[in-house]
Amino acid sequence: MNSKHLLRSLVLAQAFTLAAAFAAQAAPEDYAFKVVGSELHPGEGVTISVSLTDLRTNTPVADAVIFTTRLDMAPEGMEGMTAPVEAVASDVAGQYQFKADLAMAGNWRFQIAAKVQGEVETVQGELILGVQK
């Protein structure tokens, strides 16, 4: 193999490596949070289950670090009515569980932010929880 072909092969290999590296980088929009489970009812210590999915592969994302949550009644025009949220362990990969005191029926907004391993940007979600009497 002459040096011209060797150089061409090295340049192509490097280009493919760079293309693969950039393709592996996802954007926050490539992930989605979704409420999992049955109906929610007012009460203390209500369990809220949320899944995190990689939309590019439609696979659950395990081991994300949830670092921000906020639960309020903004959809009902009562953004000031909040409820503390506590993360609890989950046995299902890609699902994250939380406990909250849901004081009343109505629509609650659940905002959540997470760091996904290997991703630079924060993944954020905003879910509407319909709490039934």
Oligomer: single chain
Write the H/E string, N to C. HEEEEEEEEE
The radius of gyration is 21 Å
CATH topology: Immunoglobulin-like
Q: Mind telling me which CATH architecture this is?
A: Sandwich
Q: Unreliable segments (pLDDT under 50, ≥5 consecutive)?
A: 15-23
Write a concise synopsis of the structure shown.
17% of the residues lie in helices and 50% in strands.
Give the helices and strands, then pairings.
Elements: H1 3-24, E1 31-36, E2 43-54, E3 59-60, E4 65-73, E5 78-83, E6 85-88, E7 95-102, E8 106-115, E9 123-131
Antiparallel strand pairs: 1-2, 2-3, 2-7, 4-5, 4-8, 6-7, 8-9
Polypeptide structure, described:
With 133 residues, this protein is α+β, with helices and mostly antiparallel strands. 17% of the residues lie in helices and 50% in strands. It has a single domain (26-131), classed as Immunoglobulins (Immunoglobulin-like, Sandwich). The chain is built from one helix and nine strands. Strands 1, 2, 3, 6 and 7 form a five-stranded antiparallel sheet that branches. The protein is elongated. Residues 15-23 have low confidence and may be disordered.
